[in-house]
Specification:
24 strands, 18 helices, 716 residues, disordered C terminus, binds adenosine-5'-diphosphate, rod-shaped
């Protein structure tokens, strides 16, 4: 399947270009934003961790403070002297300066000996944080408990315990009871950045203090995941969901001394708020930028498109061959195209006008032609039928156009005509005009048949060939030709018969005049004798004229079949016939090599007799020199008879071949003026030409041709 070529508009291309240019900048901005977010997040984590550490330090310091006070108290002599009443009051003193809630002294069995929360002497319960007691007894080191419910106060609290030594043996555990509210206050007192959720957890992961919603969450445990992480490392970071169901990034710092920890949760929303703000700003800006830029591109595209569209209507007008004026459209390139279009249009319009003129001229020529001009399409149907054709075929243009031309050919000849058309087409050479004329039989629309001469000129119209027929009605010409032939023949017959019939009475007159002169000369006076001589001369001339006329008429009226003739023999005969004249004048006649030709021997004798005879005759006193020669030209022999005689003026070169045309009087040169006319007839009868080259006093060269019909054409 062919893939359709995508068509784009200038406007959309421009809009795309702008969008594509902006896109990298927008992507870059997004990348930078993300990078900035990562950086901010790392900073926030670092900062939050520092806060957690600081808070942890404060808590440790509180416990260490309690521990220090207890250590001092444990060295009290009242304790060693087991004066517990005094010890209680000492403890009360300590408490006054301390944040702890109460101080408890517990013996190794877990029995509370004093508890500042109760008046001295009141029965006290057993301690319930036995695990811590054991740790203190065993290790002999201070200890901070997890959050637990105290047996006296019956509420959550934390014990900071120090061992009481008797010698090197730990005998008691001295405990300062710290209420979680103290730590809560500390936590609240520490100003964590807004939105941070900070908690203090004990070793077991129980929440001891929380800067938000403390009441709800104190005593609850942080997630197992966090507890596990805190067991593994002192500081860390993990993503989780807070107790309130808020996704948070959790940062923690654990105390190496107590195992307690401070956990700070940063709501992810806080973290990403900036990012979202920047991102939405970016998206907004990008959208604004894109729409305004694309809009601008669209607008600019419109400014380009409008002039281009204007050119479109200009181009369409040019299509109608009009010269158009293109207004300035405000874009340099478009204006350049506009100017080019305007130029092209005026040239085109001029060419169009010239074309219309030439077409009108051609139509005028075609219509005024006296020959019928018919143009056919490829199927042989008529597409053009000129006025002469209308007259010739007796068929109106409307009836003729679109119909096959062979309707004007007699039905029996149509197949032949079609074949002839075809061969004409194959053999024709349009570049040479391809015209060749043929005589054919055509038919008028009333069925009358008549002879036409058809020529088939080949006309190239663009790359296609136009079949043209030019027809000439030759009916009249054929009729005239036939009449002429007939009259020519009659004339020849007449001349022949007349001259032949004239000879007998002429001969009689001649005979009578001779008898008169011979027998009655004595009885006649000189005047009569002179008249008789003149009559006798006239009769001789008339006889000569009759002979010449007869021979002239004979050339065509008594044609003989052509035979092979040795021209040399013909020349020899002529020399013999002219023997006396040659001898009398002392003429020199030279004869070159003579060929063999196909012709009428008698006529050829007559031809050469006239030419050589004239050469000897027209010499005016000088010794005649006559040269007879022959040479081969293309497909014919050229014979020349050259003399050194009086020559002929160029004006008379054609005239001398006409009947009775003479350039001299009988007194100057006797003759009838028929000789050269006979020569021309003989030569033409043999299919050749005759002409003379001469100038007065420079001799004459009479040349004639005889076609060379021999198969082998070699030089004589
Ligand atoms: P004619 O019987 O007078 O010779 P032609 O027909 O033979 O008749 O010649 C016609 C005329 O041509 C002649 O009268 C002569 O003036 C001229 N003519 C013919 N042959 C020659 C020639 N060889 N030299 C000069 N003039 C010639």
């Amino acid at each position: 399947m062919l893939k359709a070529k995508r068509v784009t508009s200038i406007r959309s291309s421009l809009a795309w270009l702008v969008a594509v240019c902006l896109l990298p900048a927008i992507v870059m901005a997004a990348v930078l934003l993300t990078y900035d977010y990562q950086r901010q997040r790392a900073e926030l984590v670092r900062d939050t961790l520092a806060h957690a550490r600081a808070m942890m330090y404060l808590v440790d310091r509180e416990f260490a403070g309690a521990e220090m006070s207890l250590r001092t108290l444990s060295t009290s002599p009242s304790l060693a002297g087991r004066d517990f009443a005094a010890f209680q009051s000492q403890s009360m003193d300590v408490l006054r300066k301390h944040y702890a809630n109460n101080i408890v002294l517990i013996d190794a069995t877990g029995q509370q000996l004093i508890n500042t929360a109760r008046p001295y002497g009141q029965a006290l319960p057993k301690a319930n944080n036995m695990a811590q007691l054991e740790r203190v007894l065993k290790s002999g080191r201070p200890d901070v408990s997890d959050l637990f419910i105290g047996p006296v106060l019956k509420r959550p609290l934390i014990n900071v315990a120090v061992p009481v030594y008797s010698g090197s043996v730990v005998t008691h555990s001295l405990v300062a009871v710290v209420l979680p509210e103290h730590l809560q206050k500390m936590l609240e007192g520490y100003r964590f950045p807004e939105e941070r959720i900070a908690i203090i957890v004990d070793r077991s992961g129980a929440i001891v203090a929380r800067n938000r919603d403390a009441e709800r969450h104190i005593g609850e445990r942080v997630s197992a995941q966090l507890t596990q992480r805190m067991g593994e490392t002192e500081e860390g970071l993990l993503e989780s969901v807070s107790r309130d169901g808020i996704p948070v990034l959790t940062v923690f710092a654990r105390s190496a001394a107590t195992g307690w920890g401070v956990v700070v949760g940063i709501p992810i929303a806080v973290l990403t708020a900036d990012l979202w703000r920047s991102l939405s700003l970016l998206v907004g800006l990008a959208a604004l930028l894109l729409t305004s830029s694309v809009g601008l591109a669209w607008f600019m595209g419109g400014r380009v498109v409008r002039p281009v569209r204007a050119l479109r209507s200009v181009a369409l007008e040019i299509g109608y061959g009009k010269a158009v004026a293109v207004p300035e459209l405000g874009i340099r390139e478009v204006d350049e195209v506009g100017r080019a279009l305007a130029q092209a249009s005026s040239r085109l319009a001029a060419a169009n006008e010239a074309l219309i003129d030439s077409e009108a001229r051609m139509r005028g020529i075609v219509e005024s032609a006296t020959d019928a001009i018919v143009i056919l399409d490829d199927s042989g149907n008529i597409v053009l039928f000129n006025f002469a054709a209308v007259t010739m075929f007796g068929c109106s243009r409307e009836q003729a156009i679109g119909t096959p031309f062979n309707r004007f050919i007699p039905e029996r000849l149509r197949a032949d005509f079609a074949a002839q058309l075809l061969t004409q087409r194959e053999e024709s050479h349009p570049e040479q005009g391809g015209a060749s004329a043929e005589v054919a039989l055509a038919m008028r629309s009333n069925g009358e048949e008549f002879q036409v001469e058809i020529s088939f000129p080949q006309v190239l119209a663009g790359t296609s060939e136009v079949r043209t027929l030019i027809l000439r009605d030759i009916t009249a010409r054929v009729r005239i030709q036939k009449a002429l032939e007939r009259s020519n023949l009659d004339l020849q017959q007449f001349a022949f018969v007349a001259s032949h019939d004239l000879k007998t009475p002429l001969r009689s007159i001649g005979g009578f005049v001779q008898i008169l002169e011979r027998n009655h000369a004595a009885s006649l006076d000189d005047k009569a004798l002179a008249l008789i001589r003149r009559t006798s001369d006239a009769v001789r001339r008339l006889e000569q004229l009759t002979d010449d006329l007869l021979s002239y008429a004979r050339v065509s009226s008594h044609p003989k079949p052509f035979i092979l003739v040795q021209v040399r023999e013909v020349v020899n005969d002529v020399m013999q016939l002219l023997g006396a004249a040659i001898d009398d004048s002392g003429s020199v006649v030279t004869v070159g090599d003579m060929p063999e030709v196909l012709g009428d021997r008698t006529q050829l004798v007559q031809l050469l007799l006239n030419l050589i005879g004239n050469g000897i005759k027209y010499c005016q006193g000088r010794t005649p020199v006559v040269r007879v020669s022959a040479h081969r030209a293309e497909r014919e022999w050229v014979f020349c008879v050259a003399d050194n005689g009086i020559g002929i003026d160029a004006r008379h070169h054609e005239k001398v071949f006409e009947v009775f045309k003479r350039l001299h009087t009988q007194q100057e040169y006797p003759g009838t003026g028929i000789g050269l006319a006979v020569c021309r007839r003989v030569v033409e009868h043999h299919g050749g030409r005759i002409w003379v080259e001469s100038a007065p006093d420079e001799g004459s060269t009479f040349s004639f041709t005889i076609p060379d019909t021999s198969a082998e054409s070699s030089s004589p």
